[in-house]
Design goal:
By secondary structure, the chain is of the alpha/beta class. Helices cover 48% and strands 14% of the residues. It folds into two domains: 338 residues, TIM Barrel; 97 residues, Glutaredoxin (3-Layer(aba) Sandwich). The strands form three sheets. A seven-stranded parallel β-sheet has the order 1-4-5-6-7-8-9, sandwiched between helices. Strands 11-10-12-13 form a four-stranded mixed β-sheet. It has a two-stranded antiparallel sheet with strand order 2-3. 52% of the residues are buried.
Length: 451
């Protein structure tokens, strides 16, 4: 058994003959065709060709049509910045630029790149009737942040009613997108809401729970399975996410898989994750990827577990690394060999913080997955940039992306455990949650005064 039938068993918490495999192939499919992310995400023909190529190579049980959390935002008036090897990033927030909430209209299935995604879905559905197709929609909180910017965090304290009205609108957009993907032929709708990692359980219950619960109920009413995707340091929210009643919760390496397994199974919910996006898939060897996949499979087991990357697979991920995972899933002999191999551990040196103290300038380092492809990372970086601007040349900032070996070495050398993390002169100051710009300024000023 494979494909959608195997995934149905996992969603139903039934024992599966093997672990289902859902590689989150987004713009990586563009790399398989040798085209840029922008060209790929704007063409239904290329999406169909790229996803088909990924299916041919990686033999998945399920696969997303596109992994693009800017699809709805663009149709709602957000301006985008495109990159060759990442999905686009939101570069403007209409509700901060004079547009009122009442003026926003729910996008139609025929608008913008939503139409491109739906056309690709219809064609892939016809081509692969036995495969589970995932329609990814931007979760209500992340969509709200795209529309309003980081001002949403202040509004949560000074204008709760406005935030609730915004969330009501974003929920309607989510439900409309669910309808569009249902009509186009998807089996699973995944609500991708990474910015919820920036709030705690109390704020989640106050501003998110009601709306996500409504979205998941609507997905169920449409006869589809649902998944709740979150990335970043969201461990504190897993219980409240379960309370929203999705069929599945999928997480990245910021959260221990065994923790999610125990909480989800207790709540009767399947779970997925959490292959290392950069250290294994992007920058590792096939053997690294096999070991990482096997670790996940051994922890997840064969009841309710779906093997998947922590998020959108990086554009330049070597296909050999993904092929290693694909082959391992069905090769029990190779699994036994990997278990028997000695684990190799590289020594990582601490960062020499004396170098920071010797400079008259304050150095701000933002550890990210990649600000161009990770929404929490993008907004943390933007907040840091705004804070640094007021100090002129007395402060410099660096993005330390863990999509590079130097970024990984910096993160490990700092003993940073989560992404995004903001460091000031070699000291970790802000972890995961995006602080107000004023707090970053205060921390920088204190450091300047101490030099």
């Amino acid at each position: 058994m494979r494909g959608k039938e195997l995934l149905k068993q996992a969603f139903a918490l039934q024992e599966t003959a093997r672990v289902p495999w859902v590689p989150f192939v987004g713009v990586h499919a563009g790399s398989l065709l040798g085209v840029s992310s922008e060209k790929y995400l704007k063409s239904a023909d290329l999406i169909v060709e790229g996803v088909s190529k990924a299916i041919e190579l990686y033999s998945p049980d399920g696969i997303p049509i596109v992994f693009d959390l800017q699809l709805e935002a663009e149709c709602l008036g957000c301006k985008l910045v495109w990159a060759d090897e990442n999905p686009p990033a939101v570069n403007s927030h209409p509700l901060m630029e004079g547009l009122t909430l009442e003026e926003l209209k729910i996008p139609l299935a025929t608008e913008g790149r939503i139409a491109v995604a739906m056309e690709a879905t219809r064609r892939l559905r016809e081509k692969y009737p036995d495969l589970a197709l995932y329609g990814l929609i931007t979760g209500p909180f992340t969509l709200g942040l795209h529309l309003l910017g980081t001002e949403i965090f202040m509004k949560m304290f000074i204008d709760e009613e406005y935030v609730h009205k915004l969330m009501e609108f974003c929920t309607k957009v989510c439900n409309a997108m669910t309808d569009y993907y249902k009509e186009a032929g998807c089996d699973v709708v995944a609500v991708v809401d990474p910015m919820t990692s920036q709030i705690g359980p109390e704020q989640f219950e106050q501003f998110v729970s009601k709306y996500c619960t409504e979205v998941f109920a609507h997905i169920k009413d449409q006869g589809l399975f649902s998944s709740f995707f979150v990335c970043g340091h969201a461990q504190h929210n897993i219980e409240v996410m379960c309370a929203c009643k999705p069929n599945n919760i999928s997480i990245d390496e910021n959260i221990p898989l065994e923790f999610v397994r125990d909480i989800c199974l207790k709540n009767g919910i399947s779970f997925g994750g959490n292959l290392l996006l950069t250290m294994a898939l992007l920058l590792g060897t096939p053997e690294d990827c096999e070991r990482n996949a096997l670790d996940c499979m051994d922890i997840g087991g064969t009841k309710g577990f779906i093997l998947a990357p922590g998020c959108d697979i990086a554009y330049a991920t070597p296909k050999e690394n993904l092929l290693a995972v694909t082959n391992l899933i069905t090769d029990t002999y190779r699994q036994d060999v990997i278990r028997a191999l000695e684990v190799k551990v590289n020594n990582v040196e601490f960062i020499d913080k004396a170098a920071y103290g010797s400079s008259p300038k304050v150095i701000v380092d933002i550890i990210t997955l990649d600000a161009g492809s990770c929404a929490p990372c993008q907004y943390m970086l933007e907040a840091a940039q705004r804070a640094c601007e007021s100090f002129g040349d007395r402060v410099v900032w660096n993005e330390r992306s863990v999509k590079t070996l130097k970024g990984i070495e910096f993160m490990m050398g700092m003993r940073a455990g989560n992404i995004p993390t903001l460091c000031i002169d070699g000291e970790i100051k802000f972890i995961s949650n995006i602080p107000p710009v004023s707090e970053i300024k205060k921390a920088i000023e204190e450091r300047l005064n101490s030099k």
